[in-house]
């Protein structure tokens, strides 16, 4: 009897893909809530709004992906978002209309879109299913759509316990 321990997962040729690796870092994301610049937190007064924006230190958004939204139930004219974007454009990496969660989801899907599918040509891929961060279901949909044309098989879960999703015949 041999005392050699064999790692069958390593020998199986499975590629484990963890979608958490594609989530944006905390340092990369910032938020801009218009509510903070409204009169009484509810009303947009053009002159006051412009003065408030001119007085901001926009450098805090340097190198960030910025989610722009209004947490108050206020009517915000389109030009107000345009004005905020005009200040953010020189410093921010990107500007997104929506809250932080929507921005993070958008960045995750963009990262999945940037995957080179040829890296997974004829490979057996396991999309990791558990982790510390919540992965939205549309990320699993997107990765499947991205890899299905090229992968030999796609599975969900952990290499030691998978659910088959797709297998090329």
Structure in words:
- Helices cover 29% and strands 21% of the residues.
- The protein is an alpha/beta fold.
- It folds into two domains: 8-24 and 104-167, no CATH class; 26-99, no CATH class.
- The protein has a four-stranded mixed β-sheet with strand order 1-5-6-7.
Per-chain topology:
Blueprint: H1 8-11, E1 14-17, E2 29-33, H2 46-54, E3 65-69, H3 78-88, E4 94-97, H4 100-113, E5 124-128, H5 137-147, E6 153-158, E7 161-167
Parallel strand pairs: 1-5, 2-3, 3-4, 5-6
Antiparallel strand pairs: 6-7
Helix pairs in contact: 2-3, 4-5
List SSEs in N-to-C order.
Answer: HEEHEHEHEHEE
Number of strands: 7
Mean pLDDT: 90
| Poorly predicted sequence stretches spanning 5 or more consecutive residues | none
Beta fraction: 15-25%
Q: Roughly how many Å apart are the termini? A: 37 Å
Given the C-alpha coordinates, what overall shape results?
elongated
Number of helices: 5
Strand order of the largest sheet: 1-5-6-7
**Radius of gyration, Cα only, in angstroms?**
22 Å
Main sheet characteristics: 4 strands, mixed
> Into how many domains do the coordinates divide?
2
Helical fraction: 25-40%
Structural class: alpha/beta
Overview in brief:
It is built from 5 helices and 7 strands; from the N terminus they run H-E-E-H-E-H-E-H-E-H-E-E. It has 169 residues and is an alpha/beta fold.
